[in-house]
Write a structure and sequence with these properties.
Blueprint lengths: L8 H10 L5 H9 L2 E6 L19 E3 L5 E5 L7 H6 L5 E6 H7 L5 E4 L7 E3 L1 H10 L6
Parallel strand pairs: 3-5
Antiparallel strand pairs: 1-4, 2-3, 5-6
Length: 139
């Protein structure tokens, strides 16, 4: 298996979408119910195995046009190379995609596996479409 072979269900779904095997809405609906890995800022004073903060600070970058983009990965091992580029983001959490997009700021994009295959970039309008597919907030 080479490095670009799909490693999990999220990556298999990404490949299906990139190869045109499923329509965009089906892709979005299925992705919302899958877990992706979100790098979060390391705490300054860590206690082994505990996080004292109740608010995770996700990795957010600006693209060339100044758009804010949340960085995520299909699996934690995909994030390892990026940790070297962004010191302070060596950890993270696996979360359902629907949980992540529900909490994203309006007007923000989302990338899964940036610069890797398989990967996918959602601009802010596509993220808004994902949010539109969510059921009413359960809170």
């Amino acid at each position: 298996m080479n490095n670009d072979s799909p490693r999990n269900d999220v990556e298999r779904l990404l490949v299906e979408m990139l190869q045109g095997q499923i329509d965009p809405e089906d892709f979005a609906r299925r992705l919302l119910n899958m877990q992706i890995f979100m790098p979060v800022k390391d705490e300054k004073y860590q206690i082994m195995g505990f996080q004292s903060s109740t608010k995770a600070q996700p990795l957010i970058v600006d693209d060339e046009e100044g758009n804010r983009i949340m960085v995520t990965f299909s699996a934690p091992e995909r994030a390892k190379a990026l940790a070297a580029e962004f010191p302070g983001y060596s950890g993270g959490l696996l979360a359902d995609t629907h949980w992540i997009v529900r909490r994203m700021a309006q007007g923000m994009g989302l990338t899964i596996n940036p610069g890797m295959e398989p990967g996918f970039d959602f601009d802010a309008d596509m993220v808004a479409m994902l949010v539109g597919l969510l059921p009413e907030d359960e809170s």
